[in-house]
Amino acid sequence: xxxxxxxxxxxxxxxxxxxxxxxxxxxxxxxxxxxxxxxxxxxxxxxxxxxxxxxxxxxxxxxxxxxxxxxxxxxxxxxxxxxxxxxxxxxxxxxxxxxxxxxxxxxxxxxxxxxxxxxxxxxxxxxxxxxxxxxxxxxxxxxxxxxxxxxxxxxxxxxxxxxxxxxxxxxxxxxxxxxxxxxxxxxxxxxxxxxxxxxxxxxxxxxxxxxxxxxxxxxxxxxxxxxxxxxxxxxxxxxxxxxxxxxxxxxxxxxxxxxxxxxxxxxxxxxxxxxxxxxxx
Length: 281
Hints:
single chain, 281 residues, alpha/beta, Arc Repressor Mutant, subunit A, Rossmann fold, 2 domains, six-stranded mixed beta sheet, 9 helices, 13 strands, 36% helix
């Protein structure tokens, strides 16, 4: 339908925000708004500048006959630091420490705004990577996994403790929980992953890292590739069963059961982006 520029800019912005990491051709927008490609190109320049100034990501231009753009969500460092500070204060307030050294986070994980922002932060770390699938283990990691997936435009698979008849044949492994030292089971439908797929692991909480290691072993059973791992909160353990992972926050408990939360390894993996060169692609 024919639109004025103001209308095109609003609709175009909404469409791109809803379709991250997807090539959108100039022809698509031209037909959608019944406008010349030259006008669409000028509109995209305005959208690109607005995305960059607002810190919501950038547009990668695709050259060639087909032409088009890709919207890549990305959180700038100052915004990430401010959000993590807010999240740290939220988790440090009240009586959140649970028996066994766990942290009560159900209220945080139930807030869509927080979940969306956490997904944006984690997705920013992997903005330049080719992620095919996101995996998590039931249950509290599920909202985080979908929040990240919505920003990377990837499917989610969920490892469960037992198989379900509705999922068909499954692959099952046993792993040792790093915190309880008990043997646990983890299953995933055979149709979940394909050989060579690059898989990102997401979880909400990590103590020693046994669950993360279990998911890594499960991914390898499919001949897929572990592209990375990210958790919302990790405990400040001396020994971990995994390495090379991203954590947003780190939890420590003093002898007097005093809770302390600080930044995790997030900024060790954060990459500054040259907005004009789009150097992550």
